[in-house]
Amino acid sequence: MKRILGIAIVLVLLGAVTVLAQEVKPGKVVVIDLGKGVRLEMVLVPAGEFKMGGPGKDYEVTLTKPFYMGKYEVTQEQWEAVMGNNPSREKGRMFPVTDVSWNDSQEFIKKLNAKTNGGYRLPSEAEWEYACRAGTTTAYSFGDNLTKGDANISGDSINKVDSIKEADRIKEVGSYKPNAFGLYDMHGNVWEWCEDWYADYQAGAVTDPKGPATGSVRVLRGGSFNYYVSNARSSNRYFITPSVRYYGFGFRLAKTADIKDTVAEPTVPIPGSTELTPATKGLLVAPFSEVKAKEAQKQLAKSLQKEVEDKADLGKDVKLEMVLIPTGKFMMGSPASEKGRSKVETQHEVTLTKPYYLGKYEVTQEQWQAVMGNNPSKIKGKKSPVTNVSWIDCQEFIKKLNEKTNGEYRLPTEAEWEFACRAGTTTAYSFGDNITPKDAIYGGLAIGAPAEIGSYKPNAFGLYDMHGNVWEWCEDWFKELPQGTTIDPKGPATSGGRVLRGGSFYWESSVRSSSRADFPPTSRNFDFGFRLAKTK
Q1: What is the pLDDT of residue 168?
Q2: Parallel, antiparallel, or unpaired for β 191-197 and 249-251?
Q3: Is 335 a residue whose pLDDT tops 90?
Q4: What whole-number distance in Å separates Cα of residue 323 and Cα of residue 356?
Q5: Which of 163, 158, 323 is closest to 233 using CA atoms?
Q6: What's 472-495 look like in SS3?
Q7: Which of 73, 255, 280, 521 is deepest in the core (most CB within 10 A)?
């Protein structure tokens, strides 16, 4: 089991650079100004225990001191700001600096520390692997497989080096998604020098290992753009003479955090569990697996002393079922490459800080009848979703439902809807980049009517019919999605239309997780329905 040591930070002065610190959480970033607009970003990594090395040859390592690790590999513009030159064969200011030896990196660090009084160094090999794994035990920090979509590597073959193609070139730092600590390019791009001399691992558990006192070769980690995928594994080791320069060699900085250790709850992902932070008690950072989603729901329910599934009795054996959704962080909207996307689906990072319940199913005709005493749907069926309801109609239903149950029900925000729909996925649909009639009801007038709720398999959160069946009203007024990071977004204060999500049985191209529509809040249609949410 992994133990993470929490920390409290004070105001730290780094030469002329002032860093305002606060309660430490994994991923905390400090930014150092190197002059002329060049910045160095360091991520705080907590102390902890982990299994170092590959399966069968791993051993327990304890790191007792928190440390900062470069958010990115050292770039060419950072090298130039400190050294006044650029040794890299292939130039690009945001490319990692290359063609540097271990000795060269020491010279850079010496001058950087003279410039900033920052205490920078290379990471130990143990620090590097712990930071790379970021709580995982798999071959890579993303799982047991790695593709060119995950990291800058030469092909996807494990058994051979692919021939170097024009595409196999260095890339700008941060071109791929980060790991759970917020560190970029720990797999591939360039090999990264570590502080240690190389030697075989010693047997048994160790604390703060730093390698042998002397040797003939220094350690490099992480693989590179021109090496095959297995060299990019979290545990893979490479070594070479410290004077050697190569166009696939670079480095990443580290420094010890000068703050006192205290014991805290685990704050990095535990395999098969959920990423926890003291502030959110269950923050899920996409992408995450179905196993992780369900474990997070269970842990959150336990901490709230509630059930994952909440059931309300509406009378005459009519039940309303709600599913607990944890707080989380995800990319809302769609990438430019997604087939069928709209320009109003700007992809941006969203954090939801409050857990909430969302309807396990769309509101049914029997539920509407139990609350409102009528059924506006043109195509009848007690277990079919209610249709022909406007946004205003939904508000009237919610008002009466809350009077009946004191349940504080509402419509979900658009961000809540998409986070719940995606359920940890980053693909066009919650089950991949393609959809078939086996996955959902969609596709055109020939279908004729929505299906009964729950006719298709649920997503990882246990929610049914998030794709197709009927369009679902959301609380928000409609507007093009913003750029940049947002927290608990609720849409604009007003506009001409309210948001609908999920597509319907009548539509074929609008059932993606990011698909958006808007209509005036008075609009009713044969494929307009809704799903409930509640915060408490």
Answers
A1: 67
A2: parallel
A3: yes
A4: 8
A5: 158
A6: EEEEEECCCCCCCCEECCCCCCCC
A7: 73
CA gap 436, 453 in Å, rounded: 18
d(CA 46, CA 182): 13
Q: What H or E segment, with its residue span, contains residue 515?
A: none
* Of residues 208, 209, 189, the one with CA closest to residue 252: 189
Look up residue 248 and give its two tokens: 């696939």
Helix, strand, coil percentages, rounded to 5, for the chain: 15, 25, 60
**Distance between CA atoms of residues 42 and 38, nearest Å:** 13
| Residue ranges per structural domain of the chain | 48-255, 284-534
Torsion of CA 119, 124, 126, 132, to 10 degrees: 70
Q: How many Cβ atoms sit within 10 Å of the Cβ of residue 337? A: 6
Cβ atoms 253, 40 nearer than 8 A: yes
CA atoms within 13 A on the CB side of 78: 26
Rounded to an integer, what is the distance from CA 326 to the centroid of its chain? 14
Burial of 32 (0-12, 13-18, 19+ CB in 10 A): buried
| pTM metric for this prediction | 0.52
Rounded distance, CA 467 to CA 502, Å?
A: 5
Could you tell me the fold of the domain covering 284-534? paralog of FGE (formylglycine-generating enzyme) (3.90.1580)
b vs e for 133-165, b when ≥16 Cβ sit within 10 Å of the residue's Cβ?
A: bbbbeebbbbeeebeeebbbbbbeeeeeeeeee
Closest CA to 398 of 475, 309, 499, 325: 475
Mean pLDDT of 127-131: 97
What does the pLDDT look like over 138-162, one tens digit per residue? Answer: 999 989 998 888 898 885 444 333 3
pLDDT digits (tens, 9 = 90+) for 173-194: 999 999 999 999 999 999 999 9
Contact 534, 402 (CB under 8 A): no
Q: Tell me, what's the pLDDT at 27?
A: 58
SS3 readout for 254-265: EEECCCCEEECC
The length of the chain is 536
d(CA 510, CA 503) in angstroms, rounded, equals 5
DSSP 447: G
Same fold, 48-255 and 284-534: yes
User: Residue 251's pLDDT is what?
Assistant: 98
Token pair, residue 114, equals 């003279």
